[in-house]
Amino acid sequence: MKIPSSFISEEIFILKQFNNMQESQISNFIDNLEQQIQTTATNQWLYTNDGNMELDIVPVEHIEGLTDSDYNIREIVTTFMPTYQRQAMLLTLWGAFEHEIEKAYLHVSERKFLPKQKKSKKKVSKFKHIVNSFYHLNLPATPSNDYREAINTLDNEVRIIRNIWAHNNGYDTKNNIPSSTQGIVKINNLISIDYTYITKVTDLMIAISNELNASILIK
């Protein structure tokens, strides 16, 4: 059975290259940070030695309207900007992958909608439900250990981190993700994602899509 050319791996491959470009731009911006900072003169009221106030002209550093008098602009650019950029990468990756894997299932099964989930005490995520639906089609027929481990990591770790960022602005208030998780740093429960984690997630998604692709084509 042939599948659409856009099936999962192609979509994720494109996002992988786009994320690499974004990360390169972030790194270049940070490496050349001092060149990005501009200085303008502004009027400020200052205390004199005798306790009075007078209007004086002082230099103020800024980046795109963020002034050093109001914020620590170097910390914002080097710490917070990469964090928010990478969480956007993760959200986009997850949305694209879940959409493409569902589209692939509907194409292969010739259904218009996903089958309804059976009632269970343990709530099953949409992602795991799609994977289980593939299993009911005997796809893949003999899933590898790498495939099973990739599914487990995506469902029990990546999906949870994605939800924390999507619904709680990155704060893991329930401590669902261990601080020892490779590729992330937690400060005051805020999950900061390293780019190695984005790479890991992308590789897991590509590995799953490749194994599904192969089993579908054989079938």
Sequence-ordered SSE layout with sheet pairings:
Elements: H1 9-31, H2 33-36, E1 38-47, E2 53-63, E3 66-67, H3 73-109, H4 126-136, H5 145-168, E4 184-187, E5 190-193, H6 195-218
Antiparallel strand pairs: 1-2, 2-3, 4-5
Structure description:
The chain has 219 residues and is of the alpha+beta class. The protein is 56% helix and 14% strand. It has helices at residues 9-31, 33-36, 73-109, 126-136, 145-168, 195-218, and strands at residues 38-47, 53-63, 66-67, 184-187, 190-193. A three-stranded antiparallel β-sheet has the order 1-2-3. The mean pLDDT is 87.
Write a compact overview of the structure shown.
The protein is α+β, with helices and mostly antiparallel strands. It has helices spanning 9-31, 33-36, 73-109, 126-136, 145-168, 195-218; strands at 38-47, 53-63, 66-67, 184-187, 190-193.
